[in-house]
Amino acid sequence: MEKIPESFTFTVGKLDAGMAILLGERAHLIEFPSVLLPPGATTGSIVSIAVHQNHAEEKRREEDFWSLQEDILKEYGVVKPSNPDLQLRHVTQTSVTLEWPSIQLATAKLRSLDIYRNGERLASIPSPLTNTSTKLSGLQTDEEYTFQLILRTTAGTFPSNIVRVRTHTMTNTSGISVCFGNVQDSVFLENTKMALREMKAKWSDKIQIDTTHFICTTPAMTTNGAQATGDTAGAPGIEYQRALQLSIPVLYPDWVIACYTEKRMVPIGAFDLKADRVTPLRSQSLSQVAINRSPDTAAQRNATNRASMPATVSSTSPPGTHSPFVNQPAFESTPEEAAAAAAEEEARAPATDVSTRRKSRSGTMNREFKFPSPLSSPTVAKRESGAASSNSPPPILRGELGRQEGVMTPSSIEVPPPPPVEKERSTNSVDETEDDVGPTVEVDLS
């Protein structure tokens, strides 16, 4: 068996640009890096090159390779994102507050985190990597809902557990979550907290995500319940401003006492601090608190409406005692003026029987009224009836008198007949309008 030589002999043929041309004994020609040649080797030098297999290094590199594969498997193949753990934090009549721990993505990348209500996608959670709670409003009172989070990543989709919750009824006041501001009366503040404790509600000094109402008696800033002084005296507090930004109702403490007294949720309209429609109750024990701001009764409202209407003017009032304008007060008149007005009204009335006098309303027309004919004019009839009187003037003087008074009888008026109207003649004759066609000729068509 031929022995394989452990080394080969070459002659350096040329050195150029970091490469050496080596010539072998059997006319082999190879390119060899000049940096691997022994120091001092030049053109024509004879070198020996030996090649050996390094088994130890091969084994070490193989072990390093498989170790890296195990690390990749553990990092990307075993650890994966975890399913969100959805929890119920707070519930009221119309809202639900949910929370969950920070999501674990492992080595995957986040795509979306969505909230589902009753199996339908509701909205995406903003800032899902840092946000761990959400408040859902606009729900129906005393109705059951289901909620679930869906986490979508590059490693797959991971749903959370399903949370079932029923919103509160109007008689359930345990969902009240109050943030206290500046309540100037310390005794009244303690009574309000005692009422919240009895209703199983909660309160805090900072606005949280589940805060439902902000309770104070003044928007002035306070420190640990004390009135602010110095430059900040009277300035709105930070929590008060946050309540306005978050549209949280700002109410007097009387609202909490009203809910405790009536054992139900009371409308907040009459206790709104911004509207300034109520005055806080005085300091007293909780058992002595009474709500005196109940809505007006129907009788009070009717009396107010009647008082705001103008006085009705009687139809039997003497003339001149009321104003001709609508809804205007009556004129003041003395008894002498009223008596004189009544006498003038009687003298104006016709001398007929009251029972036969036609009753008519103001603004209506007598359907039996007819316009008098010229011959039956009241003026003419009056003059003719007065001719028999001994004091009336003679007929000639009556005519003079009629002319002096400006009254003329129909017989004395002469109306000239209208002038005759001539028929309009045509300006163009038939001969002028027709064309001259000349003599006609009969043509036999057979």
TrEMBL record:
Any single GO BP term: conjugation with cellular fusion
Stated name of the protein: Chitin biosynthesis protein
Domain BRCT: 168-273
Residue ranges annotated for the Fibronectin type-III domain, each copy included: 80-174
InterPro entries: BRCT_dom, BRCT_dom_sf, Chs5_N, CHS_Export/Cell_Fusion_Reg, Fn3_2, FN3_dom, FN3_sf, Ig-like_fold
PANTHER family in the record: CHITIN BIOSYNTHESIS PROTEIN CHS5
Region (Disordered): 282-446
Organism name: Guyanagaster necrorhizus
Compositional bias ranges of the Polar residues kind: 282-326
Coiled coil segments of this chain: none
